[in-house]
Amino acid sequence: MHSTQKLCAVALFALAIQAASAEEHIVQAVIDHWQPQTTFAKPGDTIKFMNMTGHDTQSYDTMIPDGAKPWRSELGQTGFSVTLDKEGAYLFRCNPHVSMGMVGAVVVGDKSPPNLSKIEAEVANVKLAQNMVNRAVKKMKQELEQKGMK
Predict the structure, then answer these.
(1) Whole-structure pTM value
(2) Can you point out the beta strands (E) in 5-147?
């Protein structure tokens, strides 16, 4: 086997191991909030949004880790999924219900999110339902503290 073939085989094996250990986390849209509001995941895990009748999900583009891909589902798109590879915190909302507090967070990794201070600074730039986004950030920080991650 040539060295290029060996390298490809090792890379495929590593990807297979990562895919086998990746988990799927369910986030439910429940009337006017996300359940759970904060989800804890590992790099490579998938977040699946369920019960989406009348709801959508969209990341706050400036409140995700640098280099992470933002997302936006269609209204009512139950089963919409995102796989998150970058460690850090991801804030998201339901556009029709953001002013009612439908803001959530995903924390990827097992330590304090490296982009937490950036998220806290970005709250001041939110134009719609800033108080609700701030509330979600505070809740996420409380849960980080409870897990010993802050």
Answers:
(1) 0.86
(2) 24-30, 33-35, 38-41, 45-50, 58-59, 80-84, 88-93, 103-108
